[in-house]
Amino acid sequence: MALTTLARSGRLVAQNQSLRYVSTKSGPSTGRKVMYSLLGTAGFGAAGVLYALENSVSAMELVAHAPKYQWPHGDWIESFDARSIRRGYEVFKQVCAACHSLKYIAYRNLVGVSHTEEEAKAEAAEVMVTDGPDESGEMFQRPGKLSDLFQPPYPNEEAARHANNGAYPPDLSLITNARHGKEDYLFALLTGYCDPPAGVTISEGQAYNPYFPGGAIGMPQMLYDEVIEYSDGTPATASQLAKDVSCFLKWATEPEHDQRQRIFWRIFPVISVLFVATWVVKRSKWSSLKTRKIVFTPKKYD
Ligand code: HEC
């Protein structure tokens, strides 16, 4: 065994004439096979336990799982629906921004996605931003610029909780990736408000939503038919509003989504050809090495 390992270097083979190559291929030893099967069983077992735990925990929480919806943006080929993002921005600005911040998105991010540069500048100029200090050391207010981030509705978490019965409206920049079910969950949550089932009591200032873990949510139903008017004339039904704001927030979570897909499809053909070529070359280079068998015939002393 030790000699076989040594002989792989080739040097020893040249020195010792009694070593020769026999081209056969042998599988792993029995010990290894047992080890591999044990590892495999343990791996599958652990995955099974994790899966069971994940599901039993969700089942205990009595939470409704969001169905899968057909989004205009897919995971592999489809790009974002720019018009939907534009409408979603209107919903966010006129409804959600009253309570939720979107702190990782700046007005310049809208340019070329849902708005032209002029439009985005006009949107930014509508909000007042604290800047400074000026020459006298004072902070001052000025109209927003393209480089400004979206302004939060509350100065800090305490103020936000105080205004919402103690519940904290989370920042929505990364929300679609931060929740199980992603944008499906968001849509289901926004459209899922209903009366609590018999036996469930909801305290003052809370609403019932079966998609929210626990059922009692501190955010009242926000989206009703015609709660805002779309500038492009699309009928503003509650589900349309929810879908558009979900598309907008999905974009806010992954603004690089379209570019990532485009780059992937550009490099995919090249990578596949290179992968196959590498595989073929590797097989041919290693074939003599992998299929050889080294036999050691001890010298006979008589
Ligand atoms: C009146 C204030 C208010 C408005 C307006 C509002 N929300 Fe909320 N939202 C809240 C509060 C408060 C919470 C925290 C609820 C809780 O933790 O019980 C919340 C929580 C959420 C959550 C997180 C739920 C979770 O799984 O933790 C999402 C997503 C959300 N809101 C989306 C929206 C969207 C989208 C809009 C606009 C259509 C919106 N909200 C408008 C107050 C608001």
Automatic annotation (TrEMBL):
Pfam families per record: Cytochrom_C1
One GO term of the biological process aspect: mitochondrial electron transport, ubiquinol to cytochrome c
Tell me the InterPro entries matching this sequence: Cyt_c-like_dom, Cyt_c-like_dom_sf, Cyt_c1, Cyt_c1_TM_anchor_C
Quick one: signal sequence residues? none
Keywords assigned: Electron transport, Heme, Iron, Membrane, Metal-binding, Mitochondrion, Mitochondrion inner membrane, Respiratory chain, Transmembrane, Transmembrane helix, Transport
Extract the PANTHER family matched here.
Answer: CYTOCHROME C1, CYTOCHROME C1, HEME PROTEIN, MITOCHONDRIAL
Major site of localization recorded for this protein: mitochondrion
Write one Gene Ontology MF term: heme binding
Q: Tell me where in this chain the Cytochrome c domain is found.
A: 83-235
Asked if the record carries the keyword Membrane, the reply is yes
Q: Which family does it belong to?
A: Belongs to the cytochrome c family.
Q: Where are the transmembrane segments?
A: 34-53, 263-281
Which cofactors does the annotated protein need, by name?
A: heme c
> Which sites bind heme c?
C96, C99, H100, M219
Q: What does this protein do?
A: Electron carrier protein. The oxidized form of the cytochrome c heme group can accept an electron from the heme group of the cytochrome c1 subunit of cytochrome reductase. Cytochrome c then transfers this electron to the cytochrome oxidase complex, the final protein carrier in the mitochondrial electron-transport chain.
Q: Where in the cell is it found?
A: Mitochondrion inner membrane
Q: Which Gene3D superfamilies match?
A: Cytochrome c-like domain (1.10.760.10), Cytochrome c1, transmembrane anchor, C-terminal (1.20.5.100)
Species assigned in the record: Galendromus occidentalis (western predatory mite)
| UniProt-recorded name of the protein | Cytochrome c1, heme protein, mitochondrial
Give me the Gene Ontology terms describing cellular component.
Answer: mitochondrial inner membrane
Q: How is the cofactor bound, in the record's words?
A: Binds 1 heme c group covalently per subunit.
